[in-house]
Design goal:
Beta-galactosidase, Chain A, domain 5, six-stranded antiparallel sheet
Length: 673
């Protein structure tokens, strides 16, 4: 009999822990599974192995007495290891064990012999389990019983369970203790919730994994029924909306509202984390779906509501997926724009919710990884996720996606690139997420009013792999005085257009002492073209630089598939190595980025070109008056010749008035602030 501390000081008397102590209570997984993944699975398997090889070299000590690096082996007694130390190791432990168990282990892909990989995974799991707080006396480093440790435990435990027959009895016992301890932490408390700013969706979802794993591994444990019930609670509450909290629909024997204390997701299925609508965390349904394979390996049926609101959230991610494998961030992001791992994790549902356009989105993500791997083809693998890999998340996520396909099938046959671009066209207004996005075959346009500071922003980008405009803080809105000035929004409205597209209108007071007035209208058309108009009034101090109509373009050739951006204009060509340039007069009538993105400018007195950004309505500090009105027309996929032609054809009637009409030749657009 063993006494464990669970949750916030709750004592749970666990009568069967004597069985857990010798590992006999653990039922091994049923590994007699057919590979249902097809050709897609072979590609996923190979790319997972490539990243596994890279992460093993980055995270582990190869060929030494210990699999751990000096930061662990030489750690002082009592040092607690945290996320950046433990989570990558847990990720490797899961992925390495899964890839040894399922599919063909290709030694050439990892650059590590199978026997060595098997030895390292057993050793790594032993180290993680032995140093977990449930087993450690803190005479060395330790970890566990904190914010995210249940998830790290789930990863390490999943890996251990998959190679259970290869682990010694002592390691099995410690793994059982570790999983049991972290699962029991949640038995004495209700799942948390928070709809605004800092959702608890992803925390509930990742915590569900260790509870599910405990139930799958130890169905004869005294706490099995409690784990099974608590896992349902954490899964069901993860992505609940306000409407769910009032729903009488019966779920697993009782009304949905009776499972819930509050929502974690908005009514429009957007999700706030880190203080804004965050697509990366909207994908956190993948954490709940990762339970699916382990239910199957245990011969258990997943709870009815494992997919509660997942289809609706998944549709948002598919809608925001770009053909270059990135996710589009209407309100910028605090990680970075280069998260093709997000594209892949978003499509973890592909085998169980098959659709041809979703399959194409997964294909776009895999193509991005294959591109990253190409320079090292036939060589030792390197990290495929240069955008973000500090915590090892891409490896375990991609391996879970592979495991889903292995066990449940390849999903739908993907649409062609062109078919998917057409299928995904549409306009979505996210009232609670506070943004609107118009997606056409060739472009993405968005307007965000999440706050009056950084995330008051807009963007238009062509959907090209070698020419991308980035939604960054204050894009298009711009800055006054060389900083992101706080603004006061006086009026804001969004109108959805018949046939697709939107018109957004906003009135601001901004700049030093809020002395400048500004009216903005953005019109996004369903064919990809967009119009940006701004009217200034009031006073902008002479010594304040003004950069409005601010466009950020990707300038790293790696992310542009080797292309180097060039800015064309009537007076010539600007290259990345050139000094900043200010265009005036006829030279500022139009610009074109890399023969892929046309920009026609009217009313602006000068345009600034710099490395990575354009200011389409620029006034230097100490310069002339700010242009009282400027209008910009964006022409995605237009080359420089087409842009120059459009510049000659576009007419603006009533420029500077409160009732302008932009004549595009084939269409007239009214602009009224």
């Amino acid at each position: 009999m063993r006494l464990l501390v669970a949750g916030a000081g709750l004592l749970a008397l666990l009568s069967s822990c004597s069985f857990a102590a010798d590992g006999q209570v653990v039922r091994p997984p049923d590994l007699r599974q057919m590979d249902l993944s097809g050709e897609l699975g072979k590609e996923l398997n190979y790319l997972c192995l490539r990243q596994l090889g890279a992460d093993c070299r980055d995270r582990l000590a190869l060929g030494g007495e210990s699999v751990l690096k000096d930061s662990f082996t030489q750690a002082k007694p009592g040092v607690q290891m945290r996320e950046t130390q433990v989570r990558p190791l847990a990720s490797v432990a899961f992925a390495g064990s899964a890839l040894l168990t399922f599919g063909k282990y290709d030694e050439n892909a990892t650059g590590i012999p199978r026997r060595d990989m098997a030895r390292m995974m057993a050793s790594l799991i032993r180290e993680l389990a032995a140093h977990h707080i449930s087993n450690a006396d803190k005479s060395s480093w330790w970890w566990g019983n904190e914010w995210q440790s249940a998830y790290w435990t789930a990863l390490a435990g999943q890996g251990a369970w998959l190679i259970w027959d290869r682990l010694p009895a002592s390691t099995r016992r410690q793994v059982a203790h570790m999983v049991e301890y972290e699962a029991d932490r949640f038995l004495g408390s209700a799942p948390p919730h928070n709809e605004f700013s800092d959702t608890k969706a992803e925390e509930n979802a990742w915590n569900s994994e260790v509870i599910v794993l405990a139930a799958c591994m130890m169905p004869n444990h005294a706490n099995y029924a409690a784990w099974e019930q608590k896992a349902k609670e954490y899964i069901i509450t993860s992505f609940a909306t306000p409407e769910d909290c009032a729903s009488d629909r019966v779920v697993d024997g009782k009304p949905l509202k009776d499972w819930l204390d509050g929502p974690n997701v908005h009514s429009d299925f957007t999700l706030e984390n880190h203080g804004f609508f965050h697509p990366d965390y909207t994908t956190s349904y993948y954490l709940a779906v990762q339970n699916w394979p382990f239910y199957k390996l245990a011969g258990m049926t997943p709870p009815d509501e494992l997919l509660l609101n997942v289809p609706q959230m998944h549709k948002i991610l598919t809608f925001l997926t770009l053909p270059n494998g990135w996710t589009y961030y209407p309100q910028c992001t605090d990680w970075n724009n280069y998260r093709h791992d997000v594209t892949i994790m978003a499509q973890i549902t592909n085998p169980i919710m098959p659709s041809p356009e979703d399959a194409r989105c997964l294909r776009w993500g895999l193509d991005a990884i294959a591109y990253a791997d190409a320079p090292n083809a036939g060589k030792i693998p390197q990290n495929l996720f240069g955008g973000l890999n500090f915590n090892g998340c891409p490896l375990d996520t991609m391996t879970h996606v592979y495991l889903m396909h292995y066990l449940f099938g390849p999903g739908a046959e993907p649409l062609s690139d062109g078919q998917a671009r057409q299928k995904l066209c549409g306009t979505r207004l996210f009232e609670q997420g506070k943004c609107v996005v118009c997606r056409s075959r060739e472009a993405m346009a968005s307007f965000s009013w999440f706050d009056s500071a950084r995330r008051l922003m807009a963007c238009v980008t062509p959907m090209q792999s070698d020419c991308i405009m980035l939604p960054k803080f204050r894009s298009l809105i711009g800055t006054i005085g060389g900083k992101i000035d706080d603004a006061k929004i006086g009026k804001r409205e969004v109108e959805l257009l018949d046939g697709g597209g939107f018109v957004a209108r906003v009135e601001l007071q901004r700049g030093p002492e809020l002395a400048a007035g500004e009216k903005i209208v953005m019109a996004a058309l369903p064919d990809g073209r967009a119009i940006w108009a701004e009217w200034y009034s009031g006073s902008v101090p002479d010594d304040a630089e003004v950069r409005s109509g601010l466009v950020f373009y990707e300038n790293n050739p790696f992310w542009l598939r080797g292309a180097k951006p060039r800015i064309y204009h009537p007076g010539g060509t600007w290259n990345l190595t050139d000094k900043p340039a200010v265009l005036i007069g006829s030279n500022a009538a139009w610009l074109n980025v890399s023969d892929k993105f046309g920009i026609v400018v009217r009313g602006s007195r000068s345009v600034l070109i710099e490395n990575g950004q354009l200011s389409l309505n620029y006034r230097a500090a100490g310069g002339a008056e700010v242009a009282p009105c400027s209008v910009t027309v964006f022409l995605p996929s237009a080359d420089r010749a087409a842009t120059a032609k459009a510049a000659g054809a576009i007419q603006i009637k009533g420029l500077g008035t409160d009732s302008m009409t932009v004549d595009l030749g084939d269409k007239q657009v009214e602009l009224k602030p």
